[in-house]
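Reposting from the mailing list since nobody answered there.

I have sequence plus structure tokens for a pair of proteins and want to know whether others read the tokens the same way I do. The first protein:
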Amino acid sequence: MKKTLLIITAIVFTTSITSGQHKWQKRFSKNSKPYRSEITYNFIASCIEGGAEVDYCSCLFDYIVKNMKEAEFLKEETKYLLQEEFSDEFFEVMSAARLECN
């Protein structure tokens, strides 16, 4: 899981800004519940190991939590583990998070 989150962090830094309507808003549900502490810790730790500042990593993760349920995030992680790719909608979430956190 830690390796996957490190890869997600790398994608965050290399993904180009996506323009246009946010398709992911139709697919992913807004979330009001926090993620389990293990997921939070792994994401933040991997992000920091990738060279980002704590505040930036926290902002990215907060954006993800606000816009995706934990199960949706884990589904994307599983997709990556099985197929070594993320959905276009997930890339859009990460691009929007980068915009908000810069």
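The second protein, same order (residues first, tokens after):
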Amino acid sequence: MTDIQGPARLGKEPVLKHVGEDNKPVCELRVIFLNYRVNKKEEDIPIDTGFWAQVNIWGKFAEPASRFFCTGDKVFIIGDMDQDSFKPKDAIEGDDEVNVLHVNSNIIFPWTIDIESLAFTERKGIQNSSTSNNE
């Protein structure tokens, strides 16, 4: 396996599944890991290029990832990458195998460079950190 981290863009909607005997949650994402190039016509607008991968977010981050992200969102992913090869069912003699890159991750963040502003609300049931416990 190879460690990978970097910005990516979701190519389709996340899918939440539960697998195995213990019904472990996994969020499946189809993303393109981004490799920005300079746009010679419009230098302020980079060109997104890169490579496609299937990303699986495991455990406690799977459900939030499936609800929070959608097609087109930019994210930052940290994980382990490997590659699978297979022959499609409709392949004919002489067709090459299809290679699929897989990334297993427990860490995904919104790509905050493009966010103009954030609004936070106080969580219910959580004591304000500026309030002392001794009062």
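Reply #1 (J.P.):
I read it the same way you do. The chain has one domain: 2-114.
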